[in-house]
């Protein structure tokens, strides 16, 4: 399914092919005669329910209101989106914060403009019949995971926080696309995935209810997906970056108020688009992830330095950030939304 795989260590700069980005973005004219900046946004993966606000924002002309003609492109994983954004092959990216942290750690010139999914969707997902309702229920179980990705790297921290030894749970190394099949076939008792992603698809395929053991509900939270830009575009076009952040925030707020129409706006977005029932459940779950206690009641995408620091600390402990830096090295506060 939608695997946002994050490999650790030195990585080749493999770039997704997108429309011209960075400083080469051209302009268009709206039906009303307004001059718009042509902007590309590369997602973390093929479109799924989480991405509804971007399509709804286009449909409702929210991006146009902010002077943006938005072109949404499918991605090939957060890591590649981070790299492509830094290289200027796309103007902006939508990617998982762990991938951004790891990229910056390796010298990739990219910064977050704001994390929108501030409560991690990381979870153990299993069929209700397996009876995995609490962390203690994981003892003696086999869980599908992908070696080196953010989920597998943080799972030991989750277990430790809940008094469970790593040896009490077997993590079976599974290709990202094969995790759902492993659970449905009974080869594993569950999988490590995102509650806003794999679970609804697994439930739809198997026609059996799925349970979620969310990291965030058992002592471990960290930032997930957000908007990012390369440092070149931040230096050359900070005003465009500010408009983009404002437009994305407004689109998310509008979609949260009208989830049905927001999901409907995704029609035709991709040949790989999940069924509408799956999209609706994915987006409904996504809307539970928009805030931490510190940002509750604030506009989508408003971040705090304390939440950023907590996320950096988690991934330093997980071994995914070798040389932790200051928050400002990861998050561009100059273009950030003000709380």
Automatic annotation (TrEMBL):
Residues 1-21 form the signal peptide. The keyword Transport does not apply. The keyword Metal-binding does not apply. Residues 50-260 form the SsuA/THI5-like domain. PANTHER family: 4-AMINO-5-HYDROXYMETHYL-2-METHYLPYRIMIDINE PHOSPHATE SYNTHASE THI11-RELATED, RIBOFLAVIN-BINDING PROTEIN RIBY. It holds the Pfam family NMT1. This is Sulfonate ABC transporter substrate-binding protein. It comes from the Bacteria. The lineage of its organism: Bacteria, Bacillati, Actinomycetota, Actinomycetes, Kitasatosporales. InterPro entries: NMT1/THI5, SsuA/THI5. One of its GO terms (biological process) is thiamine biosynthetic process.
């Amino acid at each position: 399914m939608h695997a946002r795989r994050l490999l650790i260590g030195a990585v080749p700069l493999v770039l997704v092919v997108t429309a011209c980005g960075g400083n080469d973005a051209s302009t268009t004219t709206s039906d009303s005669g307004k001059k718009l900046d042509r902007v590309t946004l590369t997602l973390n993966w093929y479109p799924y329910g989480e991405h509804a606000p971007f399509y709804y924002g286009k449909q409702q002309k929210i991006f146009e209101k902010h002077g943006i003609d938005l072109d949404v492109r499918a991605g090939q994983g957060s890591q590649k989106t981070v790299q492509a954004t830094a290289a200027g092959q796309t103007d902006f990216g939508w990617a998982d914060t762990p991938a951004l942290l790891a990229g910056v750690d390796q010298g990739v010139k990219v910064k977050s403009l704001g994390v929108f999914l501030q409560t991690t969707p990381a979870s153990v997902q299993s069929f209700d019949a397996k009876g995995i309702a609490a962390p203690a229920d994981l003892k003696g179980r086999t869980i599908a995971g992908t070696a080196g990705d953010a989920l597998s790297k943080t799972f030991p921290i989750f277990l430790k926080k809940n008094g469970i030894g790593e040896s009490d749970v077997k993590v079976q190394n599974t290709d990202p696309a094969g995790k759902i099949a492993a659970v449905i076939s009974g080869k594993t008792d569950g999988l490590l995935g995102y509650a806003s992603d794999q679970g609804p698809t697994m439930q739809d395929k198997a026609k059996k209810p799925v349970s979620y053991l969310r990291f965030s509900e058992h002592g471990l939270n960290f930032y997930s997906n957000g908007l990012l830009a390369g440092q070149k575009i931040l230096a050359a076009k900070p005003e465009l970056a500010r408009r983009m952040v404002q437009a994305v925030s407004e689109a998310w707020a509008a979609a949260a108020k009208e989830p049905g129409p927001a999901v409907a706006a995704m029609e035709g977005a991709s040949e790989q688009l999940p069924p509408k029932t799956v999209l609706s459940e994915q987006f409904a779950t996504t809307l539970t992830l928009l805030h931490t206690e510190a940002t509750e009641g604030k506009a989508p995408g408003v971040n705090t330095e304390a939440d950023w620091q907590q996320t950096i600390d988690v991934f330093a402990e997980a071994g995914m950030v070798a040389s932790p830096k200051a928050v400002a090295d990861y998050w561009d506060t100059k273009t950030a939304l003000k709380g």
